[in-house]
Design goal:
Helix content: 40-55%
Oligomer: single chain
Number of strands: 8
Number of domains: 2
Strand content: 15-25%
Structural class: alpha/beta
């Protein structure tokens, strides 16, 4: 069985880094940035769409500038303003002990996702890390998961997605995967239920027990 893990809000808590870099980008481009807490919703969706909503614009040139300024800080500082979710290493150890295949499926650019996974010492747990490209390719979770399944030769009937936002649920469901929603990230119980999550876990310990039950069912 294959287990696909979202990164931001599922494996790690990137609140300080992502919100700080959004504030930096907005300030550098002459905008007044909202307080960090008001940017919490930006963790999960594609970053370009978040900037578009914050600024109420679809001007591609200005959104490109926002992304460039965001990455200016994120690539050197924001990347590491992040912390591992307590209990997730136990989840990964449990699955690895069962010789299951683990993958990262994130809309974050692969170049950053790999550095984060390596920074926290998680690389040995995962077969591969699948993310978007810096040019915006595969920021949509439907496309990303489809690409992962196709590239790795994984059948949807033999895979499960684990994530904290509706984008994870919608992306997995569109590809025929069951989804476990987690509540320690940035999506609410209502969001996960409304988008169609099959199961919802409040803690990593609960997730570990649920996954063991699925494996041995």
């Amino acid at each position: 069985m294959h287990f696909l893990f979202d990164l931001d809000g599922t494996l790690t808590n990137p609140f300080q880094g992502i919100t700080g870099c959004i504030q930096y980008a907005l300030s550098e481009l002459g905008h007044s940035p909202p307080p960090r807490e008001e940017l919490r919703w930006c963790i999960g969706p594609p970053l370009r769409s978040s900037f578009a909503e914050i600024l109420s614009t679809n001007d591609p040139g200005h959104l490109d500038e926002c992304l460039a300024k965001y990455r200016e800080r994120f690539s050197t500082i924001g990347l590491y303003e992040n912390r591992l979710i307590d209990g997730m290493v136990d989840v990964l150890n449990s699955l690895q002990g069962e010789r299951r295949h683990l993958w990262v499926a994130t809309s974050k650019p692969s170049v950053y996702a790999r550095r984060i996974i390596e920074h926290f010492g998680l690389a040995p747990y995962f077969q591969s890390i699948h993310g978007s490209e810096l040019d915006g390719t595969r920021t949509n979770k439907v496309e990303l998961i489809a690409h992962l399944l196709r590239t790795e030769g994984i059948s949807p009937s033999d895979a499960v997605m684990i994530g904290d936002r509706e984008h994870d649920v919608i992306g997995a469901k569109a590809n025929g995967l069951p989804v476990i929603g987690v509540l320690w990230g940035y999506g609410s119980h209502e969001e996960l239920v409304a988008s169609g999550a099959d199961e919802i876990c409040e803690t990593p310990a609960e997730l570990r027990h649920l996954l063991q039950g699925w494996i041995h069912a």
